Amino acid sequence: MSNSALSSARSAPAGRVAVVIPCFREREHILSVLDGMPRFVDYIICVDDGCPDGTGKHVEMHCEDPRVEVIYRDRNEGVGAAMVTGYRRALETDARIVVKVDGDGQMDPALMERFIAPIAAGRADYTKGNRFYRIEDVRAMPATRLVGNAAFSFMSKLSTGYWHLFDPLNGYTAIHRAVLQLLPLERLARGYFFESDMLFRLNTLRAVVIDVPMPAQYGAETSHIRTALELPRFLLGHAANLLKRIGYNYFLRDFHVASLEWILGPCLMAFGFVFGIYQWYDHYLRSEVATAGTVMLAALPLIVGVQLTLSTLQFDMSNRPSVPLHTLVDDDGS
Q1: Taking the model in full, what pTM does it have?
Q2: What is the rounded distance in angstroms from the CA atom of residue 122 to the CA atom of residue 101?
Q3: Which of 252, 272, 275, 276 is nearest to 264 (CA)?
Q4: pLDDT tens digits, residue range 267-320?
Q5: Which residue of 26, 172, 222, 273 has the lowest C-beta tally within 10 Å?
Q6: How far apart are CA 86 and CA 66, in angstroms?
C-alpha cells in the first residue's frame, strides 16, 4: 500500500481497523496470513476455536507482531461462534471497521483496502468478497465449489433479500462498527451458515451491502466443511430466514400491495396445483374427460398465482437498501 493510500486510509472516517481471524486447524497457514497483514491494521484478533492442533499456541510462540492477540474458546462450535467471540472483542477496542479474514491463506490480506474503502467513503455498511467477477478467476475454482456456490447463491438471494449479491459463502468481509453494534450477535448462526445468516440479519436492519471483486485462491489448504451434513442445515436455515424476512419486512415493519401478493400468490398456486392434480386423478379413475370449467378452475388460480409471485419477487429485487445505515446511527460521525 502506498504512503498516499495509507495517509488517505488514516484520514478517512473509518478510523482504526481490527481484523478477526477464526482459527481451526490452520497451523500451517496462519503465520503467513499474519505476515501479510497491512500496516494500517491496528488490531489482529485470532480466535482459537477449540483448535486440536493448537493454532493459537503456535501463533503466540512464533508471531512477534504486537498487534496480534489470541483468544481461546474452550470448545469448537464453528466459525460463527468464533466470529461472535472475535466481534465482541473488536467492539471493546476503538476500531471503526472490523474485517474478517480466514486463516487458511485463501484470502489475500493485500486486498483489504478494497473492502475498507467503500465503508470509509460512506457508500456501504458491509462489504464481502465475490470470486465470480472474472472468468479467469472462476477457472481456478474446483467444479464442485463452482456448482455449489451457484446453488447457495440463489438460496441466499431469496432468503436475505440481497438479490444483487453473489458468492454468499465468501468469508472475506468488513463491517462498520456502528452496524456491528446493532446486530444481535447472540442469535447469529454458529456454524458454516454464519455468513448467510449475517446477510439476513443485515437486511432486517436495512444495511447497505456490496460485493468486492477478488480472485479465488486455492492451494494446499483443506476444507473443513462436510457437505452432506451441512446441506440440510443450509436448506433449513435459508427457508427459516426467508419466512422471517417476509414476516418482518412485509408485515411487521411495513404493509403494502406486495404484502398481499406474498399471501395470495403462493396460496393460489397451491390451490390450482392441488385441485388440478385431484381432478385429473379423479377423472382418470372414472375414465371421463374434464369439462372446460373444471380445467379453468384449476388453471386460472395457478396462472394468477404465478403472476402475483413474479410481481412480488420483482418488487423484492428492487427493494434493496440504498442509504448506508452507519451514516444515520453512528454518533461519532466516523
Answers
A1: 0.88
A2: 22
A3: 272
A4: 999 999 999 999 999 999 999 999 999 999 999 999 999 999 999 999 999 999
A5: 222
A6: 17
